[in-house]
Amino acid sequence: MWKKPLRYLLPYPVIYSAVLLAVTVSVLLFYRNIDHTFEELTDAFLRYQSDNIEEFARNIEVRAVQLVPDRPVETLKHNPALRERLNRILSLFSTKSYRYVYMLRLDDSGKLRYVADGSFEVGERGVFGQKFDPDSDAWLKALRSGEPVYRIQDNFTGLWITYYYPMKIWQKKRYLLVFDISLTMLESFKTLILPIRGLLKTISAVLIALLALSLLWAVLFYFQRRKNSIDPLTRLYNRNMLDEVRHRLDLRKTSVILADMDHFKRINDRYGHDTGDAVLRHAARILMRMTRPEDILIRYGGEEFLIFINGVESREDVIEIAYRIHNAFSMHPMRYNGHELQITVSMGVVPTPGATMDLSEAILMADKMLYIAKTTGRNKVVIFGEEKNAPRPLLYHEIEESIREERIFFLYQPIYDAESMELAKYEVLARIRDKEGNVHLPNEFIPVIRGTGAYREMSKHLINDALALIREKGVSLSINFDINDFLDETLFETIYDSFERCEGLTRQLTIELLEENPVHDMKGLENKIRQLKELDIEIAIDDYGKGYAGLEYILAFRPHILKVDRYLVSRVFSHPHVPAILESIVTTCRRIGIKTVAEGIDNELQLQKMRQLGFDYLQGFYLGKPSEKLVEEERRQ
Amino acid sequence: MRRLLLFLPFLLLTLWAATADELKIRIMESLARLVTHKENPGVYIDTGKRFDTKAAALSKMRIVSSCETADVLFTENVGALMERCRIRPGQLVFSLSYRDYLAHKERTIGAFFWQKGRPNIILNGEELEKERIEIPKRYEKYVE
Fold first, then answer.
1. Is residue A131 less than 8 Å (CB to CB) from chain B?
2. Helix axes A11-67, A80-91, angle to 10 degrees
3. Which residues of B touch A (CB under 8 A)?
4. pLDDT in tens, B56-94
5. In the structure, what pLDDT confidence band is assigned to residue A330 with cuts at 50, 70 and 90?
6. Which CATH class is domain A28-189?
7. Could you tell me if the ipTM is greater than 0.90?
8. What CA–CA distance (Å, rounded) separates B110 from A284?
9. Residues in chain B within 8 Å Cβ distance of A110
């Protein structure tokens, strides 16, 4: 389930990682450059020392040549006092930093020998003529090139650098002034630059810490973002992801499907929220199975799913995909806690939004198609461009206008006494005629106006017309109300007042209780039903045997009549259990004094069977279709 | 270049030696083997300083505690050593001080001393000749 969502979240971690990698490399380079900088500073310091030493060396040369103008070996060999004076000159430059300053001569055999030595320390002063064992060929380079050469010393010598200066006096390329620079100078130098080095390293450490924090932040951000973008229940993207994918979708190659689960509220109310959640997960699984990795699934609302089908080749392909998804729901009923739930979806499809719509418009259009699917019977797919083939749903203001302009009218379907086959009563069925003259069924306008002023107005209209007809024609009528309508105090008062004003007529009135949604306040409803019964109104439970209508209502409301749904009647010959069920309903009702009505009788066989089973009343197209005229009037005509 | 090659043994020693003491031991070992032509010469070191025993143990020379059993003797004071030990013919003495070497040149085969942080080696040409010790050409630069 994660695979698909992660597809669209992944580019961000990649970008963060790349940025962090770049910053890490920069910091490491910076850290590395600290040492490099230190080396450069050391080189600069050495160059500075080199200049100093060259000046010292030139001064020594001047003093030495004043002391021994020429033939130094011969002169010094026989003159210890002069040697000592030369040593003293050198000792003037011998300090803690310039630890040893001495003069060497290359003899004819290629050996270096001391000429003078400014060293004070016991055992360190070289004797005139003493052989000097060089530790490198730096001296040779200095003599050959005539340029000073320095050598970084090994640690065990206690020295930092030895500086060989080829003397310009006496015999050329023979005499060297050597300066051994002690580690003390290096330490002093380090003391100077260490704080800078420390500061730079501290900055690096802070940068690394910031980097680690950034990394942590990036990881947390990624997980938070994933949490924010993914619906925890279905593991699909949630609505937040819409902004993320908006700029990545090419609507010329993307189709938009909006799917909404039918009667989800009923499932939630009847089976509880856990079942509702399971249904949503089931729906998500089906959607995942029926789409490809490149498609995008978003839980758009409570039970609404938005699907972007990417890489669309043709309109027909998308329509096929949409129907495939739709059929998958029918083919895979959900099993949960021992219940088998048949889940259906209504879908609005915009196959090719193309260049004419932006994403919001495409979603809006899909929503309109979904609305058509929902208001024209549900469990269907409505395709943008083909919606004209589907009945156009009425909008609220159109319904309101129809009621105001009295374009609401009623049909009467006869109900016959099963034994005598005489007309017993009529069921009143509301219809609306729109401005174009199309007639709309209740399921096309009741859900739109339920709970509104227009609904109350329509109810009032229905009751008044029914009562007028009873008064005028003396017929018995049956009118429908949703069971929850009576919990709407305003509506109930309107209904009750109308009935109360015509108390004598209510004896010929039956109220059929439908149930769109389960009842939450049974006690309150019982009370309302009791009040209606007191007006001699008969109460009928409609659509018994399908949906919610169950034994609980029989016990609570003690209805006069039970109308068995066409669902059972139509299966009386096709399902082996139905005759027994119907027989049991009839027997039970008879024992407790409830009359029974068989609805939806479509043929003679069903008619005979229902009579045989003992139903009290019969209703159906076979016996009489809903008509604007009463049977009596038709007969007269 | 040739001169550079002559330094090679000591340069290598310098590179390998971790400490001055270790280097001193190795140089003594080289000198002892050079003048005795023995693989494991017995060496007596007469100095107040304590050497790195680990380095000494790893060397091929045998450090002996008695001057009588030594093939080569290293001392800071040749005169005092001569008074203390009876040097047998064939036993070779190295001075560990240049001034001491100069003072007892006729009785020492050479000198090895540490000056200005560096090792210095002198091989006494006359004594080498007297003792009929032949040394490889590359060591001739140390001969005085």
1. yes
2. 150
3. 3-4, 7, 10-11, 14-15, 17, 19-20, 23, 97-99, 102, 113, 115-122, 141-142, 144
4. 667 788 888 888 889 999 999 999 998 888 888 889 999
5. confident
6. alpha beta
7. no
8. 97
9. 3, 141
